[in-house]
Amino acid sequence: MQISMTTLTTMTTTPIPAATPPAIAPKLGDPSPVPAQKIPSLFAGKAWQQVLSRDASADGQFVYAVKSTHIFCRPSCPSRRPTRKNVTFFPSPVAAEAAGYRACKRCEPNLATPRIDPQAEAIASVSKYLAEHASERTRLADVVKATGVPRLTILRGFKRVLGVSPGQFAKAQRLSNFKDRLKPSGRSSSSRVTDAIYDAGFGSSSRLYEGSAATLGMTPTALKNGAPAVAIRYVLADCTLGRTLVASTPAGICAIAFAASDAVLRHDLRERFPKATLITAFLPETPARALPDPDDDPQAIWLAEAVQFVLAHLSEHPTAATFPLDVRSTAFQQRVWQALQEIPRGETLSYARVAEKLGKPTAARAVATACAANPLALAIPCHRVVGSKGALTGYRWGVDRKQKILAAEAQ
Question: Residue 197 CB: number of other CB atoms within 10 A?
Fold first, then answer.
């Protein structure tokens, strides 16, 4: 799977404190002026970024009003975003109404809490049915009959509530079952790949192999056998976080890790790819052990760029990740990892907030599990996800390293 390094949009979960009213704004049609508190310009930049990211954690802290429409909304409103020059902020709906703005009928900012999606319960019952029958070939008509949820409700509400289509959800469940049956165990598996394909609910081998590189990171047979005949090159280097390992398959970078010693890094890489051919490469700073000529070896280019990315990331002059990534993931892990890449450098989000952005507000634990499974430090910035109160919580390569990385990014 290649995860593109997308352009990052700024987000923040920093609370917007209450403001002291600097001015009085009259309500339209009201002869007597009413105090209208506005958020001071010191905090307007942060509020605007929360509006751009539809930050639900900012709901209740302020509302934003659009001058051209005279409507005010909560930060998480799904409506199209206006231009910045037409936006002003108020600490409460009462203040916005006092300034002459009307409440948005879509997000209803004058309500204490947003309304629960009326189809959430129905979609939950459908997703439960699909998960329980992942090993069966389930038709939409069967789901409608078993759950009593209308066909159009499933098709229209599933992606809005869960963020994926019913077909994507069902395939992710089958893929998870398939990977569990083929997980390397150090002994020969009693399940052949073909048997596992049908046991997991795939109608044919072509349905699984189609796009397998995007979901498994390699073909199913290679996954079952622990990546045999796959040549993985890796580089070891010093950095401010200790020793780092960067590894690459012919498809892209497959591992970026930190540890106190090379032995630990090599052991972890072998654990992930028990039957791959591991080849030690060397940084070009050592002439006698230089990497292969980049003109003849794209893999060498990716290794060199990835090492430079790691070293520069912890300095005052970070560089962008220009190399492809080759990682195995489930559909949900892929969505989480892509969401992590959208968190700006120097900022953090809570696990709950990431879950909300994915349209699964109760999946904070699942987000934490996906972060823990991330094999690519820095390139997939799981270090930017923290606890609900800002606690660093866990990190695959150590909380101390997480703290140092965040401190370097904040400079």
Answer: 23
56, two tokens: 């639900």
Task: Tell me how far apart the alpha carbons of residues 327 and 333 are, in angstroms, rounded to a whole number.
Answer: 10
Residue 380 lies in a domain: yes
Residue 328: pLDDT band (50, 70, 90) is confident
Residues 143 and 186 in one domain: yes
Q: Which of 104, 107, 254, 382 is catalytic?
A: 382
Which of 73, 104, 107, 254 does the annotation list as catalytic? 73
**Can you give the CATH number for the domain in which 350 is found?**
1.10.10.10
Active site residue 371: no
140 and 158 part of one domain: yes
pTM above 0.70, yes or no: no
- The domain of 404 spans 331-410
CA-CA distance, 245 to 228, in Å (whole number)? 21
β-strand partners of 376: 256
Verify that 370 and 355 share a domain, yes or no: yes
The helices-and-strands tally (H runs, E runs) of the chain is 16, 12
Q: How confident is the model at residue 312 (pLDDT cuts 50, 70, 90)?
A: confident
pLDDT for 296: 46
Active site residue 77: no
Angle subtended by helix axes 166-182 and 331-340, to nearest 10: 110
